[in-house]
Amino acid sequence: MDTGTGTTDLSIGQVAERTGLSVHALRFYEREGILANPVRRDPGGRRVYGEDDVEWLTLCIILRASGMPLPAIRQYTEMVRRGDGNEEERLALLRLHRERVTDQIGRLTRCLDLINHKVGVYEDIIDRGAAGHECVAPPAPENRPAREERLRGNGPNGTGSPEQV
Amino acid sequence: MDTGTGTTDLSIGQVAERTGLSVHALRFYEREGILANPVRRDPGGRRVYGEDDVEWLTLCIILRASGMPLPAIRQYTEMVRRGDGNEEERLALLRLHRERVTDQIGRLTRCLDLINHKVGVYEDIIDRGAAGHECVAPPAPENRPAREERLRGNGPNGTGSPEQV
DNA sequence: GTAGGATCTAGAGTCGACTCTAGGTCAAGT
DNA sequence: ACTTGACCTAGAGTCGACTCTAGATCCTAC
User: What angle do CA B112, B113, B118 make, to 5 degrees?
Assistant: First the structure.
């Protein structure tokens, strides 16, 4: 398990297990240039990963999970691969992403407010005895406890980002 | 603009403008059963929407923006279409979605912490004079100011939700 | 009556991020 | 010798949510 590099070697399956990515995804990421250093191979041609790779992948997973697209991750990877001297660039990329994530959290939070509000309305309807209110066939604006409560944020367009969510 | 229904009529283009959805998307949503009441048509066969529809669509946009898939929105729409009596069902669906949104906000927030941390590291590197640190070719764990700072949450697997983000 | 613009339908195409398949290799165990 | 299971490559397929195209229709204004 140790090649003498002083670091533990891992097979693709082991990395998959550790990262939660599938082996397919690992190979795919490699093709996409999402690995900071070229994967080593054993004499049989099989991929050999180090703990370094796992840590790098873990970072990538976090970036992906926060909505960074693969091309951007590739860019970042390339900067890192180029080595010292482009820290400002990397920082710029991270800051931009941070802003996106912050925005997204904001959007989601505004959505959550509305959902909470609606949940509250239904709870009321239900425990004040089953029947009587709410839109039937035509969606009469879904019961109205305070009109200006309905569209905070997300105005015309919903910030344009369905499924960026 | 007024058909005597007491409510303002709108063309598909106008609804598109008001909601930020494209006309294509509006027709698509209709096919997908995402409208609480069947769209009216004018004598020429063109769609006629009311303010009601715009409000319903606005709700749908919010649900979409918070990650609810179209099939779920369709389900909800169908419940509403069926009319009073299924409030518990609707409530259950909304509560489930609320939980998802909350989880997602939590995940994103954890990612944000990490990104912030990394931004901080790069800021340090940069303003303590350009050169010297950080991973060069192999990603030596990306500078290490406190190891346990690196993976809070998102453990093995990153919560399994790339691009659910 | 005719040009322009918005609308209609049905259906094909796109995009991102994987996932899966086919067909083959390799190492370990029996 | 042989089975098993993890691995390999190249490339095709999938999924969700739209977007776009083609070809026709319908009003308005000139």
Answer: 95
So what's the pLDDT on residue A138? 39
Q: What pTM was computed for the model?
A: 0.78
- Burial label for B101, CB within 10 Å (0-12, 13-18, 19+), is buried
List of A residues 112-141 with CB within 7 A of strand C: none
- Is residue B123 within 8 angstroms of chain A, CB to CB? yes
Of B36, B58, B112, the CB nearest to A101: B112
DSSP 8-state secondary structure symbol assigned to residue B41: E
- The answer to whether strand C lies under 7 Å from the CB of residue B15 is no
Chain-chain contact of B115 with A52 (C-beta, under 8 angstroms): no
Q: How far, in Å, CA of A47 to CA of A39, rounded?
A: 6
Q: Rounded CA gap, B24 and B27, in Å? A: 5
Is there a contact between A91 and B115 if contact means CB atoms under 8 Å apart?
no
A53 pLDDT higher than 90: yes
Q: Which helix (H) or strand (E) holds B47?
A: strand B47-48
Residue B134 φ/ψ, nearest 5 degrees: 65, 150
| Protein residue minimizing CA–C1' distance to C27 | A44
What are the angstrom distances between the C-alpha of A165 and each of A109, B66, B123? Answer: 11, 6, 29
Q: What is the mean pLDDT of residues A119-130?
A: 88
SS3 A141: coil
**B 26-85 residues with CB < 8 A to A:** 36-37, 52-53, 55-56, 58-59, 61-67, 80-81, 83-85
> What amino acid is encoded at B129 in this protein?
G
Kindly state the average pLDDT of the residues B58-81. Answer: 96
**Residue B4 near residue B48 (C-beta atoms within 8 A):** no
* Strand D–CB B70 distance below 7 A: yes
Quote the CA–CA distance of A138 and A119 in Å, as a whole number.
20
C-alpha–C-alpha distance, residues A85 and A69, integer Å: 24
